[in-house]
Amino acid sequence: MERHKDKKKKEKENEADTSKWLLLDNQLCFRLYSASKALTSAYDPMLKPLDLTYPQYLAMMVLWEKDDISVGEIGERLNLDSGTLSPLLKKLEAKNILVRARSATDERMVTIKLTTKGHDLKKKVLKVPTQMICRIDLNEKEIADLSKRLDFLMSNLVKTAED
Amino acid sequence: MERHKDKKKKEKENEADTSKWLLLDNQLCFRLYSASKALTSAYDPMLKPLDLTYPQYLAMMVLWEKDDISVGEIGERLNLDSGTLSPLLKKLEAKNILVRARSATDERMVTIKLTTKGHDLKKKVLKVPTQMICRIDLNEKEIADLSKRLDFLMSNLVKTAED
DNA sequence: TGAAATTAAGTTGTGTACAATATGTTGGCG
DNA sequence: CGCCAACATATTGTACACAACTTAATTTCA
What we know:
Chain A is mainly α. Chain A has 2 domains: 38-125, Arc Repressor Mutant, subunit A; 126-163. Chain A is built from 8 helices and 3 strands; from the N terminus they run αααβααββααα. A 3-stranded antiparallel sheet of chain A has the order 1-3-2. The longest helix of chain A has 22 residues, at 140-161. The model of chain A is unreliable at 1-5 (pLDDT under 50). Chains A and B meet through α2, α3, α7 and α8 of A and α2, α3, α7 and α8 of B. The structure holds a DNA duplex.
């Protein structure tokens, strides 16, 4: 595949070089897309007994770390906009896991507070990340390493988005 | 963070050890979820002039590699079921990019064939992967490396899903 | 051969995602 | 003070994703 790389041929290879990146198996992006879906569906059976979807679980993780914050703050943390979060948080409110209320000081904002049920849910969910780490079957160093690469990739995408 | 690891304390750390994995910033899965979304939204402006979404682009990549295949074969390649593919392929048919037709030999199957417009679209799309590689800003080795890790992760998830 | 199991695709219902827009609130600023 | 740009959230519309179910065709095998 990497033979015959003398300069005369290199230009001729350009077209082939370009279209080899169009092969699905060569696409990093497709792997990320697939891996992300696979992870979500791996979470689902663990979260189902807790009546949570994966995005709902993410929102809860934000709230377990710090309660009494605005919709916008959650969105900043998860990279989700109000179009996604508004209905999601309404569903969590319908399950009595949290309460939404207009802020008294700034009525543009909606403040999210966990209920007792919402706080208690954290105990039940503690085993989920551990189970997931087992299934991923990577050690702590490998996870950190992969995380670092993904962070680098993300920052490049964000950086070049400002054009 | 890694100090004080004598055996007496290790057991006491268990609970803290467990809940540290519940922190969003420690979650590999959240990074994958975010990276996947970021990549899709990076594709969108490139694909918009071609009137394709990212999942539609993936389906087209499969078809550019091998035409005249069934819905199921596309789904196997992309890990998508008929619930996702049926409407997606109908949209591509409405754009005159492909044609869907019941197979003559097995009428349960629907065979997908690219139209001339569908084949021609490949030329216009050739620059997309190259542009994306620039934005990702990883060299060929780093991409291969990251891909390998994601493949490993995926195979672990699939493997442990058979329980 | 013919009923039952299997298979392929489509449909329905729920839940994200996000662009674009709407609505109400707040903070300037002339 | 009053107007207006900026802001926070909600709503609408489009497009996945997938579980569960339906429909129709094929295969299996008693």
